[in-house]
């Protein structure tokens, strides 16, 4: 990561095809790969991790188990 990367424009992703680093977008800026599903999966994982942290802070064991199961499924 470099200091001149834009902030607050969504998560930074790395294209799984050409490895170009960029803000989340539908199509890779370098190789034009369709990143729509990749970006949706990444955003969903980040949201689940944030909700998991909230569930841990709140002591909600049911939500923790559900979110941990989802994250295991998502990341294999
Ligand atoms: Zn690419």
Describe the structure.
The protein is mostly helical and about 80 residues long. The chain has one domain. The protein contains two helices and two strands, in the order ββαα. A hairpin with a 6-residue loop joins strand 1 (about 10-15) and strand 2. Helix 1 (about 35-60) runs antiparallel to helix 2 (about 60-75). It starts with 11 loop residues before the first strand and ends with a helix. It binds zinc ion (ZN).
Q: Count of helical segments?
A: 2
What is the percentage of strand-forming residues?
A: 5-15%
Instruction: Quote the distance from N terminus to C terminus.
Output: 26 Å
Please write the string of helix (H) and strand (E) elements.
Answer: EEHH
Characterize the biggest β-sheet: 2 strands, antiparallel
Rg for CA atoms: 15 Å
Pick out its properties.
76 residues; mainly alpha; two-stranded antiparallel ribbon
Summarize this structure briefly:
With 76 residues, the protein is mostly helical. It has two helices and two strands, in the order E-E-H-H.
Describe the protein's topology.
Elements: E1 12-14, E2 21-23, H1 36-58, H2 61-75
Antiparallel strand pairs: 1-2
The structure holds zinc ion.
């Amino acid at each position: 990561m470099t200091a001149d990367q834009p902030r607050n424009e969504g998560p930074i992703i790395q294209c799984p095809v050409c490895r170009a680093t960029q803000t989340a977008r539908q199509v890779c800026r370098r190789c034009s790969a369709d990143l729509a599903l990749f970006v949706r999966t990444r955003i969903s994982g980040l949201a689940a991790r944030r909700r998991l942290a909230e569930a841990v802070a709140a002591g909600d064991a049911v939500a923790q188990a559900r979110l941990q199961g989802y994250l295991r499924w998502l990341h294999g």
